[in-house]
Amino acid sequence: MNSALRLATSAIRTTAPLRAYTVRNTSFNGFRAYSTAKTQTLKERFAELIPGEQEKVKKLRKEHGKKVIGEVTLDQVYGGARGIKSLVWEGSVLDSEEGIRFRGKTIPECQQLLPKAPGGKQPLPEALFWLLLTGEVPSEQQVRDLSAEWAARSTIPKFIEELIDRCPPDLHPMAQLSVAITALEHESSFAKAYAKGLNKKDYWLYTYEDSMDVIAKLPTIAAKIYRNVFKDGKVADVQKDKDYGFNLANQLGFGDNKDFVELMRLYLVIHSDHEGGNVSAHTTHLVGSALSSPMLSLAAGLNGLAGPLHGLANQEVLNWLVAMKKEVGDDISDESIKNYLWSTLKAGKVVPGYGHAVLRKTDPRYVSQREFALEHLPEDPMFKLVSQVYNIAPGVLTEHGKTKNPYPNVDAHSGVLLQYYGLTESSYYTVLFGVSRALGVLPQLIIDRALGMPIERPKSFDTKHYAKLVGATL
């Protein structure tokens, strides 16, 4: 490992867990660097791992590059490329029966193994980010150092504050988030270095720096949007001795509720990554493959996340539940829910929060939120309604016959938890999803640049050519 990389870092000394950090900056390749005297930083560890990963990929392609790993049907081509094996995504793999694994670890395993805040039960988002980037479970000290580094990088430029302030309050919060992240391109070290002539070997360093800066600033940006649109416009400062989940909750205005803080930690972890084929992940990867900065790449992914068939679904689920409750009244019977489900389907609509492109069982992310609700809000009427729907909807959808997976996904539960704690503005929910998704897609962007992944450019044909390929006559 480069000796400069070992030495040209700074110290973050702690006097108590997640408290009282003193940050001393030095520089590495022109960047501020953060570390403790005793623990290895994330950047240092990732730099150590790069040569081995590069060699692994090189050997795999050299020895097996010509082997066929699947086939493509015409249905897949016209069906949204479902199931086509064509992307490399290191952070997570989604199994249709087992659900998501982050670097091979299930959600319960992550909840058990990843470091937590003092007194907390849920894994810290910082720990998951480390895991996604390196494939390794970090130490508690490494996670605390990363918390301090993100807090130290969290200040947003004045022009970003002014830009958000000038957005009309009825502009959707996701559009405001996209505008703000796009504007952060002004601060991109990758874009500036590339314009001056950047060595390919250093692409990952600048991608890393931009990614760390964006992630660090996201809570303040997200909170600014929330407080502007729904509250008084005032946003609390980042507390430099606190973790990422706490600061997001606190800046939103819920820092005094320790259960909500724990919910934010869980929310940020489980919504972060869902392999590379979903719209937000694939879009971020695709735009990044053109060597667009992490700011532009993430903004593109967030625009995809804002779609009703992707991240906006968590907003739609709560609206659907509220509409159901309004129509059938307070005395909600199984029969009334069953009738409402059928009325939704017969109107040509989908049941929001149910079904998934890959999963064929109840989403483990749904299960983790249900377990949280059973512990913290078992008597909440909306949670009871969600549980009732959970018992009834799969049977109705199976009878309907047009859904391959009749079970709930992550969106079916998150809105109910948020509204219980007072965050009732459902149009804002996807912004929280976006903050979380950044923690999943940006590690892969760093890995892409470290491994020298090329621009993505699949081949396309028109319908006449496809017909010719399969021997059809149009």
From TrEMBL:
InterPro entries named in the record: Citrate_synth-like_lrg_a-sub, Citrate_synth-like_sm_a-sub, Citrate_synthase, Citrate_synthase_AS, Citrate_synthase_euk, Citrate_synthase_sf
UniProt-listed Gene3D superfamilies: Citrate Synthase, domain 1, Cytochrome P450-Terp, domain 2
Any single Pfam family the record assigns to this protein: Citrate_synt
Catalytic activity reported: propanoyl-CoA + oxaloacetate + H2O = (2S,3S)-2-methylcitrate + CoA + H(+); oxaloacetate + acetyl-CoA + H2O = citrate + CoA + H(+)
Keywords: Transferase, Transit peptide
Cellular component aspect of the GO annotation: mitochondrial matrix
GO molecular function, one term: 2-methylcitrate synthase activity
Active-site residues, as the UniProt record annotates them: 310, 356, 411
GO biological process, one term: carbohydrate metabolic process
PANTHER family for this protein: CITRATE SYNTHASE, CITRATE SYNTHASE, MITOCHONDRIAL
Family, as annotated: Belongs to the citrate synthase family.
Record protein name field: Citrate synthase
